[in-house]
Each structure stands twice: as structure tokens, then as C-alpha cells.
Amino acid sequence: MCVSQSVMVPAIVEYVAAKGKESYTGFISELVCVKCTTSSPHEDIDVVDLLKTTQNTKSDSAKTAFKLWKKNQCSNNNNKKGSSHNNSKKLDEEMSMLQFLAINALDLSAPASDVLLKSRNSSWFQLSGHPDSLAPAGPGTVWKKRSGDPSDTERYVYEELSKDPSLRDIAPRYFREVEYKGERFIELQDLLSGFQDPYVIDIKMGTRTFLECEVEKTNARNDLYKKMIAIDPNGPSKEEHQLKAVTKLRYMQFRENQSSTRSHGFRIDAMKCRGSPPVTNLKTIKSPEDIARTMDTFLGGKSEVKRRLLDRLREIRMKIEQSDYFKRHEVIGSSLFMIYDDHKIGAWLIDFAKTNKLDEGKTVDHRTPWKLGNREEGLLYGFDHLINIIENVQCLENKNNGTMSKPLTVSVTS
């Protein structure tokens, strides 16, 4: 076996040690070592040997077992001259990419793994969401922590989409649900796998991001009034100022109006461009001109990227329009995850913790304006506006951005 992303191996070995060799043998055997791109592969490693090494260490630590194996492999590789400097550079680049693994577009939570947590360093970052919430699970997969909320239907949505031949490629592939150290996770396709130093953008879709049950109570609240005036002192009406209280519905709609959510059916949450730190203060971008400028920055003047992304977005929109599944579900708070590098592009719909099946006989078209009780959320309304804005972005190739070195391919769920 070869190992391309060494930080992953301690966690994998720890999992194998806890669950048994059969559970992860397949994943381990598929790892490919970066060093092997310019040198001959290492000899196969028997999972049983790894388990024995783990069990024999005084600290009973999978990390210690991995260090012993890595030391032995490095000793062997030191005998191979000539390409060691290039190999080391490639390994550093691979590690940097791994640390960028699975941004908040998947809203991931790390497994309670000491080995995994200790492997993080200052270069690990997220575009948005809760700090320290990301974790690799295996080659090409990530773990997402399931909430204890009964309304968290995400596992079932991913599972259904993965089973449907017409929908399985519009969302990350679902593998399984796992329990680890008393917590439950779902294992999903890692959408960053295979991309090198990519451009990434996270766009929250829909004209509302709250469930109807969250705003059914009509009592006015002082705490929400204080939140509102902290954002905009002129936000409350004259009557609300006198009461010093607002309802939950009023506050939620006010909050949606601070971004392009209600007007355009989407908001740009965060973005990462090559050579720049992530930008996370984009939620208040609202005007069509500012949205277009942000998308222009993301596309970087690359007309081929624009063309292929538009093709992909139109494909996802069409599949949602034609799907009986989406006609019978409201989709609240889902995001559109878009990514590209010099060679390929990808786009997926993600985050389904607030996706719920409608009552029998009820349907939605995802474009009708929302009013309490109709369950519409503007998902396709947002796709329409986003596609229209990207269509009108002028992507003129320039000497700084250049053209693609190779034809772009579209990355989808296998």
C-alpha cells in the first residue's frame, strides 16, 4: 500500500484498530503515495501488521504505529537519490491541499479523534461556519456529524439522492452512517478530492433559510428587537420601537433582507480564490452589481470556466425541475458548492438538514413566492437568478489569468 496523505493514516489505522480490519481495508488499499509519482511503489502493507504495531505500542496509539511505519519507509526512500527534493515539495503541496479539505459548504464536524485533532495546524481554515468543524474520513470521503435534532433529515436525503440514477450526481455521494466514540456521523464524498489549489465558492440557496415551524409563534420578543437594532438601528418600525420587541417572523425576514436572499433567491456566503485567503464577510452583498463583481472575481476572467459552470448549473436546475422527489420536498438552507482548478470544475447541491417531505398530496415548484403555509422556499428561483447573473459576467481572458492549460472536465459524483 502507498500513502499520499499521511495525516489521514493515523485516523484510518485508529478506526481499523477499533472496528476491525475488514471495515476499512478497502479504503486503506486505495491510498496512493505522492512519492510514488516519481519513484517505484512501496511494498504492500498488511493491515494486520498495522494492527499488531498499534497494539504493541505502550501508548496504544495509532499515531505511534504510523510513525514507526513512516520512519521505516523514509529510511528506505533515502536510498533513492535524485528526486527527493521534488518529492518533498510535492508532499508539502499535498498536505496543504488536505488541510483545505471539505470547507464549510458541507458544514462538517470533526470526529472525536485525538489523532485527527492533533494533526491540524495553523494553515487549516474554513470558509464559514463553526471553527474546527472539518475532518477527513478516508480517501475521497469526509465525515459529517449528525445533530440530535429530530428535524435533521440529512442522512435520509443524501441516501435517497444517491439511490436515484437521475439525481445521484447533483449532490455528494452518500456512503453510510457511522458511530465513533459515542457520536454519529454520515460519510460523504469529499468534493475537494482531486482538485489542486482550487477556487471555491459557497452560495446559500433559496428565498428563506428558516422553517415555517420556527416562525409560527406570534409573540413579540425583546431579545430579537435588540438583535435587530444592533444590525440596523432603523430596522424596526415606529410601533416596534415603542414596544421594543419584534416577532420571530419579522426578525427572520429582516435578516434575510440584509442579503440577497429574498431578492435573488441566494446569497454568497464565502469564497476562496487562488493565492488569497478565504473571504467570509460576503453575506451582506445584495445589489446585482456587487453580486456580479463578486462572481467575476470568482471566475477570474476565465471564459471556459464560466461556460462549463453554466452548463453544470443548468443541468442541476433541469434535474430538480423534473424530479418528483423535489416536487414533494421543501429544501431549506441548502447551499450550492462550486469549485474549479486548472483542469476541471465541479458544482453540487449540499446541506439537507432542513429538507423535509411535504404532506401527502402537497407539492412545491420552488419558484412561487413564499407565504406561511405554502412551504415554497425559492430554490429554483435562486438558480434562475444566479445563472442569469453569471451569463452576464464578461469573462475576458487576460495575461494574468491566462487560459486553461488543458481542457476542463466536469467533476461529478461517481
Descriptive account of the structure:
This protein has 414 residues and is α+β, with helices and mostly antiparallel strands. The protein contains 15 helices and eleven strands. The strands form three sheets. It has a five-stranded mixed sheet with strand order 6-5-8-9-11. Strands 1-2-4-3 form a four-stranded antiparallel sheet. It has a two-stranded antiparallel sheet with strand order 7-10. β8 and β9 form a beta hairpin. α8 runs parallel beside α10. It is globular and about 60 Å long.
Mean pLDDT over the full residue set: 73
* Share of residues in helices: 25-40%
Strand ordering within the main sheet: 6-5-8-9-11
* Rg of Cα set: 24 Å
Distance between the termini: 23 Å
Overall 3D form: globular
Pairing-aware structural class of the strands and helices? alpha+beta
| Subunit arrangement of the protein | single chain
Topology as a string of helices (H) and strands (E): HHHHHHEEHEEEHHHHEHHHEEEEHE
- How much of the sequence lies in strands comes to 5-15%
Largest sheet: 5 strands, mixed
- Total strands: the figure is 11
